[in-house]
Write a structure and sequence with these properties.
Blueprint lengths: L8 H11 L6 E5 L6 H12 L2 E6 L16 H11 L10 E6 L5 H13 L3 E6 L20 E5 L5 H7 L4 H13 L5 H17 L3 H10 L2 H18 L2 E3 L5 E3 L1 H19 L16 H14 L2 E7 L10 E10 L2 H7 L4 H6 L7 H15 L4 E5 L3 E2 L1 E5 L2 E8 L6 H8 L1 H4 L3 E6 L4 E3 L2 E5 L8
Parallel strand pairs: 1-4, 1-5, 2-3, 3-4, 8-10, 13-14, 14-16
Antiparallel strand pairs: 6-7, 8-9, 10-11, 12-13, 15-16
Helix pairs in contact: 7-12, 8-9, 9-12, 10-11
Length: 448
Amino acid sequence: MGMIFKRKIEKEFIAWKESLKLKKRALVVKGLRQIGKTTSVLEFAKANYECVVYINFVDEKTIKEVFDNDFVVDNLIRDLSAVLPDARFIENKTVIIFNEIQECANARSSIKAFMLDGRFDIIATGSLTGLRGYNKKESRGVPVGFETILKMYPMDFEEYLWAKGIDDNVINYIKGCFKMKQKVSEALNKTMLGYFKEYLCVGGMPDAVNTFLATHDMNQVRQVQRDILENYHDDFGKHLNKDEKEIKNKTESIKITEVYNSIPSQLAKENKKFMYKEINLKANAREYRNAITWLEEFGLIELCYNLNVMEKPLKGNKIDNIFKVYVADTGLFVAMLEKGTAHNILNGDMNTYKGAIFENVIADAFSKLDKKLYYFSKNLEIDFVTMYDHEVTAIEVKATNGNSKSLKSVLGNYAKYHVKGNFKLIDGNIGTENGINTIPLYMAFLID
């Protein structure tokens, strides 16, 4: 049994429970498989409720039938008690957990009845909830207005530090340095950059983190990551038919796999813009755009869009058909690359993928801050453009602290670009030179 890791989303669980005093809503936690949703939800439920009733719609198929009848809460509770003899339903002291809710459309529809009734709280988790048209059953609608939806991600760098047992005082000191623009003590900065390179390779999947902390063996970590990717692969193109039986769209599955397999070569290019010809020479947007959207809704990739201009609203200035694709967990991305990549990173040899891996981990950090991803490429290239401190901020990522020609050009031409805010993320320390703010790579999670 692995360790139970402290996760940031727990604060949001507590806020949701508080909000129930004003209005009853179910909590729906969605996100990739194997990122720790069920573990976090169960820990929270056990700490906050006298009775926890756990239903997994993947394992317990017979329970689905309970939800095929009318949504009268007393009848639902009676039928659930019969199917789950150990479950106890005490009014106002019970939470019902619907795990993998996307597998039972009517259970999701029943949420409204439960909330209007008000005697039982509900927490639902779903790994394929975001996939359009995943479940083809004629359900009785999504309970709009009766759910609080939270998206959960793999562990971020701060959660990784918690898992390693790094003291809060150390983390608070780093946050203070970032805020005050003061150098981090050299010894600590070096240690943190070391931990960050470790995090690049291990990533934030709880199983991978657990394996690394227990063994410090990157081969074992890679095996765990490859197994996770293999499990995801089994989901490619999967849907449920009108009877909620699993069906797989072969053609869709092949296209999704082809897009997924092309990601390393997409990011290895100097210009990391997504090119359909990297999938195969005949590939085009019409044929493959849906496969990209599938992977995005599944949660395995994040799209980063090019901007026409670096002005707010960023969303209004994005170019829909020009984007880069990043993997939602950099550890998984490293596991997609050649064996030995992790070893090279930890030993400071950054070869071909160096830019891609560092850009990926920054994209990943921003996604976990719920930021949409944008970049700017027009005669010059800015790796990321984001909002920070209410202003448009240009961000460059330098694995090797190289020259920042593009950033200098942008800052030197305010009349043209209207951008002052900036960060250059480096394998070094905090500093300011010619108006450019350098910060260590590991501080990306603070650009909130």
